[in-house]
Amino acid sequence: MIIGSHVRFKEEQILGSLKEALSYGANAFMLYTGAPQNTLRTDINLNYLNDAKKIMAEHNISMDNVICHAPYIINLANKSKLDAWNFSISFLKKEIQRCETLGIKYIVLHPGSSVGMPSEVGIKNIIEALNFVITDDNKCMILLETMAGKGSECGRTLEEIKAIINGVESSNIGVCLDTCHLNDAGYDMTKFDEFLDNFDSLIGLEKIKCIHVNDSKNPINSHKDRHENIGFGTLGFLTILNIVNNEKLKNVPKILETPYVSREDGEKELVYPPYKFEIEMLKKGIFNENLIKDIRDFYR
Ligand SMILES: [Zn+2]
Asked: Which of 117, 165, 187, 221 is the most exposed place for a label (fewest CB within 10 A)?
């Protein structure tokens, strides 16, 4: 199983990300090349990168299993503020260059929010923007993430994702599924094989390059987007286990973005990463109902 989680990109940059991933028993990971909510970026340190590559080789971790996530501030769907739209385009281009420097092959992108406009308008804007960004020569492929449909988010249906892919001139574009978002968008994850058949006939399974594996705090079709720890939400452990073990997606990296755990029940501040324990649970295939307690005991 190719599985990992979202990790930090701070001290020692990608070397730090890798060390964090290894501490979770992961063989894949996802990073933001800086804070997701701002555009401050430090230069890529090639010494850290070279050290990371050595350790990755020792652990048999391929660069195919390292994913970048574009920052949330990029919104390609809203052209009403032209400066902001142009900025999103140029910043996304820069992020792709940073990925190429790091040797990262995939960057996940939220398609965008149309903000008060119909989604068709948003999708047209996204296509126009992506045609400025994507070339056949890009060594880092953009993966459109399936969204929950919160507010005016575009990409809440497979038909919308398909429309964007069809509108982009280059075929150098893929898809990142998110199990929480799909549930919240109205897709029944307990019937995952049917979902994949539908995806295959509309878009083609080969376009799926990453899966965000998250449980959901909310019922199907709620359009909320609140992630829950594996086995503690609407999808439940067996539904998620079935997804991560799907033979057709065997070579696709699975990335956890589940919430950190608080020190005690009822505390707001989330401090302990759940990933080591969630990865272990999914690898073993056995639900650990004491997951939260085990995480607290380990990090305390
Ligand atoms: Zn995302």
From this structure: 221
Instruction: Quote the domain boundaries for residue 87.
Output: 3-299
Residue 146 Cα to ligand 1 middle (Å): 8
* Residues within 5 Å of ion ligand 1, judged at the Cβ atom: 145
Distance CA 231, CA 9 (A): 27
Cα 299 to middle of ligand 1, angstroms: 26
Task: Specify the number of domains making up the chain.
Answer: 1
Q: Give the model's confidence band at 41: pLDDT under 50 very low, under 70 low, under 90 confident, else very high.
A: confident
Q: How far is the CA of 12 from the centre of ligand 1 (A)?
A: 24
Q: Compare 116 and 189 and report the one with higher pLDDT.
A: 189
- Domain containing residue 200: CATH number: 3.20.20.150
Given a contact cutoff of 8 angstroms between Cβ atoms, the answer to whether 6 and 21 are in contact is no
Q: What is the pTM of this model?
A: 0.97
b/e code 163-191 from CB counts within 10 Å (16+ = b):
bbbeebeeeebbbbbbbbbbbbbebebee
Q: How far, in Å, from the CA of 8 to the mean position of ligand 1?
A: 15
CA of 47 to the centre of ligand 1 (A): 29
Distance between Cα 107 and ligand 1 center (Å): 10
Q: Report the distance separating Cα 131 and Cα 114, nearest Å.
A: 18
